[in-house]
Write a structure and sequence with these properties.
25% strand, 6-stranded mixed sheet, Metallo-beta-lactamase, Chain A, Rossmann fold, 331 residues
């Protein structure tokens, strides 16, 4: 159900604040866009003006181009847009990710963007923000999703890599170029062997470091140089043109790492011999904990298992509804 006559509404361009005349994570180019983070389903090209968290500045320019008109603000530093107060607050999703707090005439809304509660040691940890209305993502908004502690996941990945290394194989793991790859680089045991990454990951690594985040070293892959990849770990986005690289690897063993891998059917459909469950989104308990911490009674679920989460919230006494979005939630 669409929001109407409220501080934030939805129109053909996305989530809109009429009082301030700006959009939050618009679906297409608009006059003024407030952006929660650098993933492509939230940071869309074509807007005249952008506003983001300072720590996301270089990442957004890598995504959208250096010539965008971008204003930034530190976490917890209010910006006034046409009488509406906007501020960014850590979301814990990826480096530079933020929730957006919107206040006007005593009414406070918070747009979560994407978030997770587990501190990954890289991104600024999630901070709950008190509000009257909370728009929450629900990528993994189903009771089946309960994450293991990340240390156990890293232990499993390192064990898989170590076994491959002893057999002289190249370990190839598919991970999103922004967020998951950097988290994995820091979680891997660098004593096992060399770690390489696709140029798309390497480019994001540089922007993440320049933004002030601590990231371990990782060697960019090169098609120009011959390398011996036996025993190495290679991090590569699945959507990349990877065939040229794969031909250079010795007896490659590949794996997929994602929150979706918690479901057996998804593991089988990935077509990979190995799969690991690690997500940059909140699991079911994390979503419920975050929602409760806001103190909000009005909750709007978007991006993911919206109907299921909304039904649970309604049964629990919240005023909850689904906020339509062209995106279903991604890893």
């Amino acid at each position: 159900m669409y929001l109407k006559n409220t501080l934030l509404t939805v129109n053909k361009n996305g989530l809109y604040c009429a009082a301030g005349d700006f959009y939050i994570d618009p679906w297409r180019g608009v006059d003024r866009a407030v952006v929660t983070h650098g993933h492509s389903d939230h940071a869309r090209p074509g807007s005249r003006l952008y506003l983001s968290c300072k720590k996301s500045e270089l990442i957004l320019k890598e995504r959208l181009g250096n010539r965008i008109s971008l204003q930034t603000a530190d976490y917890n530093s209010p910006v006034v847009i046409n009488g509406v107060t906007v501020s960014f607050h850590p979301a814990g999703h990826i480096p530079g990710s933020a929730q957006v707090r919107v206040e006007h005439r005593g009414e406070i809304w918070v747009v979560s963007g994407d978030y997770k509660l587990e501190d990954d040691g890289l991104s600024d940890p999630f901070e709950p923000v008190k509000c009257h209305a909370f728009i929450t993502e629900s990528t993994f908004g189903a009771p089946v999703y309960h994450w293991e502690p990340q240390e156990k996941v890293y232990e499993a990945v390192n064990g898989w890599w170590s076994r491959n290394c002893m057999q002289g194989k190249t370990s190839v793991i598919y991970a999103y170029s922004l967020g998951k790859s950097q988290r994995l680089i820091n979680g891997l045991d660098h004593a096992i062997g060399r770690i390489y990454c696709h140029p798309a990951v390497a480019s994001m690594n540089e922007r993440v470091r320049q933004s002030g985040f601590t990231l371990k070293e990782c060697t960019p892959l090169s098609l120009k140089e011959e390398q011996d990849y036996r025993g190495a770990m290679v991090i590569i986005p699945q959507s990349s043109g990877i065939s040229e690289y794969m031909r250079r690897f010795t007896a490659p063993e590949d794996a997929y790492i994602s929150g979706w891998m918690q479901i057996k059917k998804m593991r089988k459909s990935s077509g990979r011999p190995a799969a690991f469950t690690l997500s940059d989104h909140a699991d079911w308990p994390g979503l419920l904990k975050a929602i409760k911490a806001t103190g909000a009674h009005r909750i709007y679920a978007t991006h993911g298992y919206t109907e299921l989460l909304t039904r649970w919230l309604l049964d629990s006494g919240y005023d909850a509804s689904v906020l339509p979005s062209p995106y279903t939630g991604r890893e």
